C-alpha cells in the first residue's frame, strides 16, 4: 500500500466550504478510482483551520492517477483561494515490501 498524508491550513472564512469540497472529492475518489482504498478527511476541534487527509492507494501509480483525474483538477481549482498552506507526505508500507527495513 501507498499512504498519503495531506495537511491543509484553511482560511477561517473558508473552512465550511472547503470541508464540503474535500468530502465530495474523497467520496468521488473512493467511488471512481479502483486504486484508492481509503480517503479519510480529519479535523481536530482544537485546530479548526487544519484539515488532514489520510489516503491509501494500491501503489504510487494509483496516486498519480488520482492526481490526474478530472475531479481532482476541479477540486484543486475550487480550493485555490481557500488554502493558506498545504503539505503532502507519502509513505510505503515496509511490511509489504515497499521499502527496505
Total helices: the number is 3
Taking all Cα atoms into account, the compactness measure Rg is 14 Å
Number of domains: 1
Q: In what order do the strands lie side by side in the largest sheet?
A: 2-3-1-4
CATH fold field value: Alpha-Beta Plaits
Number of strands: 4
Q: What's the CATH class label?
A: Alpha Beta
> What class do helices, strands and sheet pairing give?
alpha+beta
The percent of residues in helical segments reads 25-40%
Secondary-structure element sequence?
Answer: EHEEHHE
Mean pLDDT: 94
Principal-axis shape = globular
Distance between the termini: 15 Å
Beta content: 35-45%
**Stretches with pLDDT under 50, minimum 5 residues:** none
Indicate the topology:
Elements: E1 2-10, H1 15-32, E2 36-44, E3 47-57, H2 60-68, H3 70-79, E4 83-92
Antiparallel strand pairs: 1-3, 1-4, 2-3
Helix pairs in contact: 1-3
InterPro entries: ABM_dom (IPR007138), AI-2_Isomerase_LsrG (IPR050744), Dimeric_a/b-barrel (IPR011008)
Organism: Thalassobacter stenotrophicus DSM 16310
Keywords: Monooxygenase, Oxidoreductase
Can you give me a brief rundown of this structure?
By secondary structure, the chain is of the alpha+beta class. It has 3 helices and 4 strands; from the N terminus they run E-H-E-E-H-H-E.
Write a structural description.
- By secondary structure, the protein is an alpha+beta fold.
- The protein has a single domain (2-91), classed as Alpha-Beta Plaits (2-Layer Sandwich), CATH 3.30.70.
- Helices cover 37% and strands 39% of the residues.
- It is built from 3 helices and 4 strands, in the order βαββααβ.
- The chain has helices at 15-32, 60-68, 70-79; strands at residues 2-10, 36-44, 47-57, 83-92.
- It has a 4-stranded antiparallel sheet.
- Helix 1 (15-32) packs antiparallel against helix 3 (70-79).
- The radius of gyration is 14 Å and the shape is globular.
- The two termini are 15 Å apart.
- The relative contact order is 0.30.
- The model has no long low-confidence stretch (mean pLDDT 94).
Amino acid at each position: 500500500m501507498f499512504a498519503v498524508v495531506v495537511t491543509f491550513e484553511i482560511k477561517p472564512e473558508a473552512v465550511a466550504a472547503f470541508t464540503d469540497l474535500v468530502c465530495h472529492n474523497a467520496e468521488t475518489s473512493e467511488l471512481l478510482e479502483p486504486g484508492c482504498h481509503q480517503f479519510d478527511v480529519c479535523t481536530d476541534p482544537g485546530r479548526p483551520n487544519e484539515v488532514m487527509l489520510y489516503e491509501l492507494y494500491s501503489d504510487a501509480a494509483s496516486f498519480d492517477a488520482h492526481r490526474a483525474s478530472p475531479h481532482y483538477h476541479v477540486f484543486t481549482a475550487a480550493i485555490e483561494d481557500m488554502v493558506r498552506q498545504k503539505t503532502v507526505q507519502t509513505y510505503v508500507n515496509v511490511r509489504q515490501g515497499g521499502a527496505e527495513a
